[in-house]
Structures are given as structure tokens and as C-alpha cells.
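Two folds, back to back.
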Amino acid sequence: MALYAIGDTHLSLGGNKAMDTFGGAWEGYVDKLRAGFAPLTAEDAVVFCGDLSWGMSLEEALPDFRFLDGLFPGKKYLLKGNHDYWWTTVSKMMNFFTGEGLTNFSLLHNNCQLYGETALCGTRGWFFEEEADGHNEKVFRRELLRLETSLKAAGEREKLCFLHYPPRYQGYICQEIVDLLERYRVAACYYGHLHGGSHRLAQEGRRGSVEYHLVAGDYVGFVPRLVSEWDGN
């Protein structure tokens, strides 16, 4: 049994925003995702770190959800990215998933999920791009509250954190989020959002007491990154 993470699949199987048009690593990315997930089994789980689908509604994103569900039969934990316009309330999303037979889908949103005795925590996060048009204090504080709610729900368990936005970036740090990760003794943080030339500005490895890892799809070659393994006991 293994836990993986990947972000930014940017699927558009029911729309017209396929990322192949950007060339480079994105050429044939849907086939790359199929190949990258092929080794996973029903015993494995994946955290998807946002920007799953370009769909503007749950219905429009349904072909992308079905594609993700068909990649492997195990558990799928979803969190929100800045381009997940289909995202709505937890109750509406879970009712939709259940109604469509997507029973392996769960959400990381104002909660934590358990992988063995390890707590999976997360939220969208905050990034300097959000401050370019003026700092939205209300939205920022809401993200901090969601993250702390998730971390508190974990209790004293070992904690892993999954964000969409990087809490650290060359020349930028979201100190309030980093402070929460340190205060709640998070072992590692996985994030997405950064693409192309931005990869070189990502900060990976240990900073303070937390390990940071970029798992954006084009960064990891559309192969989900191994987070941890568990023997089921």
C-alpha cells in the first residue's frame, strides 16, 4: 500500500483547453498520465493537489473525473486549485461524486483524511500572485483558518500537508502558512502550481523542520510522486 501525490493535471476532456497546445512536457500529457499511473493498484491512494480540470462546473468536469477514476482503482483525495472553477460546496461535490459512482473520491477541505496513522491535511493555500491585484485579507485569513482546522483535526498524529500554492518560492514566503506547518510539526509539505520556467524557482528539501516537495504534473513527468508506504497494520 502506497500513498502518492500529484498536482495540476489540467484535464479538459470535455472542453477545449487541452494543455498539449503549450508543447514541451505537455505534449501527450493525457497518455503520459495513463502510463504514469499504470503501476498503481486498489491498495494505493493519491492526493491530487489542485487544478484537476478546466471544467467550469461539476457536469462539465465529469469526463475528467471519470478519467482520473479510471487511472487506478484506489482512493483519490482532492483539494482545490486556483483553476478548479467547478469546485462548489462539500455536500454538493460529494453528492455529485456519489451519484456518478465516483465512490473513491474524497475531499481535503476543512478536514483531514487518514492514511494508516498518518494525517493528510491541506487546503488551497496562498501565493504572491493573489497579492498582485491587491491583498484580499478576508480570503487569506479564510485559507489560514482552513489549514489550521485541518491540522487541528489531525490531533497528535504524524502530519503531511498538501497545498496547491507553494508556501515557499524563490524571493517569496507565505510566513503565516509556514508558521502553521512548523507549529503543528508537519513532517512534509507537497504542492503544485509551478510550471515551465518556474520550476527552477521552486524550493525543495528541508526548510526549518519541514520537507517541501513540488509535485506539479509537468514537473514530475505526470508520474505521481511516492509519499509513503504502509503495510496495512
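---
second:
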Amino acid sequence: MSQQKNSKMLKNESKQDGFSESSATGSEKQYERIQNIGSVITSSNKKKIYCLTIIGQIEGHTYLPEENKTTKYEHVIPELVAIEEDPHIEGLLILLNTVGGDIEAGLAMAELISGMSKPTVSMVIGGGHSIGVPLAVCADKSFIARSATMTVHPVRSGGTTVGVSQSFEYFKRMQKRIADFVVSNSKISEKRFYELCMNTEELVMDIGSVIEGEQAVKEGLIDSVGTLSDAIACLYKQIDKKSKSKSRITKR
């Protein structure tokens, strides 16, 4: 009898403290999600948003060394599909701090995000370099921290490259794919984007340009310089706008 009373008392105390078994399970799942893929689902004002982080080097078709911080595209792609299909998630926030990586993997993720029906907002914190540029501009609205930078440079390849005209043509076509995507998802012109890529006066060991927060906005790559709260407020605003347009269609 005393054991039953104790268990009842413990349950009542946990309820009074606002803690329940279901909330504990939810917290554990959130922690597990952060550990495994660096993402979190948050809810405020009855709006549920998904925060996806793209950090380190973007890993593509080959494994990178274990000491590298990586974002694996085979993890991100199913997550994007799940976000698009989940009726409870109303918006996506992408936080970027990446040095770049596999071009095709980065473009694949950027294309999926740009084609989502749900409101999306991206924010560059630290850096959004190389193939991180298309990932930064693929959202409906993009932000950059004042101290963050973005490196724009031509396509390059590690390892052995066959020195023939076909190799040059392949790189040229891949560069055009990136340029077309960036230009169509931002306010920068194609001419200016290539000028930044081919700049020979800034990088010591490479060609290209390093663009800081405010300059990225002036160049038309990013929409606004801002903070995390600015990005979240923008996402909530987009969610409200979409829900209002939905209700108008329903009334008709």
C-alpha cells in the first residue's frame, strides 16, 4: 500500500512541476535528433518550424576523413522530403556555416529546398563558401550575419584531372549550372557573378572573391543582414501570409 501511495505522490509531483513522461520522451527525441543530424523542431505561437543546420564540409558520393565535420546529403534529402510532407511543420529555417564541398550534393539539396511549397528562410552564420552559396540563396528569403563571409570562386577539382579539352568543357558546364541557379534565386546578375568568380586580386592561392555580410546584400546575393531573431520573425511572417491566402481560397 505504501509503495502505491509513493508512486501516486511522485506522479502528482511531476504533474505539478509541468513535467510528464511524454514531454520527457519528446526532449529525448529532440536531443537524439540534434546529435544525429544537427536539426531541431521548435514550436511557438502555435507555429511549428524545422531548423536544419548545414555545417562543415558537404559530403557527397565519397566518404570524407573522420576528423572532418560534415553534412551528409543522404541524411538531408530524406529530411527535406519529410518536412515537405509533414502537415504539422509549417516552415523551414536553414542555418549555414559551411566551407563547401561536393558540388552535385550541394546543388541537389539547394534544388530541393528551392522547390518546397512551405515557407523557407536561410541564414549564413560564420561562412557560406563555395557550393554553400547556392544553398544560401535557395530559400524564399535569405539573411547573413554581419560578421559572416561568402567565398565565390570557379569550379575546381581535387585529385587527378585529364588535361584535355573535354575536361575544360565539363568544368565550364558545371560552372554554368551553379551560376544559373544562383542568378535565378537571387538578385545578382550573371555578369557580376562571373566577375566575382574570376577576380584575381583578392585570394593569394586561388581566384575568386570573399564577400562579407553587408557586401553580400549590396551585390544582390543575400536579401538582408540580420540576426537569428530577424530570420525567425521573417519565417513566422511568411507562415502567417501563407495561412491567410489559404483561408481566402477556402472561403471562395
